Amino acid sequence: MTHSVCKRCGGGFWESEKGAREEDLCDECEGKPAPNQAARRSVEVFDIPSGLGGSHTVEIVGELQGGKVRLRVWYGRATATGWEPWKDWDGYRFDADRAELKNKRTMPLFK
Ligand SMILES: [Zn+2]
């Protein structure tokens, strides 16, 4: 797996190897027409326990059955030119119970 940055929204994502996808687009952007507006300025996020003593900042990217949601980790920092993803975690996806999500807030992607 290799970490790439989405050319459209600036979010990090994982692909099997560099250039595996025709376009360097994340799961959310791939297969969708380009939005009229530019990259998102902010994202609605939550905290969820990481199981390692800390927490992950996550965005809900999908609704699943049984009260579960698919989450995308935001790990990096906002800069003047947009989100700067830090490797290893940014763009990581996993499923969890919605009830585990805490501290809903809007996180700016630009400084
Ligand atoms: Zn994207």
Beta-strand share of residues: over 45%
Count of beta strands: 9
Task: Estimate the helix proportion, in percent.
Answer: under 10%
Number of helices: 0
N-end to C-end Cα span: 30 Å
In the sheet with the most strands, the strands line up as 8-5-4-3-9
Largest sheet: 5 strands, antiparallel
Order of helices and strands: EEEEEEEEE
Ligands, ions, cofactors: zinc ion
Shape: globular
Q: Which regions are unreliable across 5 or more consecutive residues at pLDDT < 50? A: none
Number of discrete domains: 2
Radius of gyration: 14 Å
Class from secondary-structure proportions? mainly beta
Instruction: Output mean pLDDT.
Output: 87
Summarize the topology.
Blueprint: E1 2-5, E2 12-15, E3 42-49, E4 55-63, E5 68-73, E6 76-79, E7 82-85, E8 93-97, E9 102-108
Antiparallel strand pairs: 1-2, 3-4, 3-9, 4-5, 5-8, 6-7
Bound molecules: zinc ion (ZN).
Zinc ion is lined by residues 6, 8-9, 11, 25-26, 28-29.
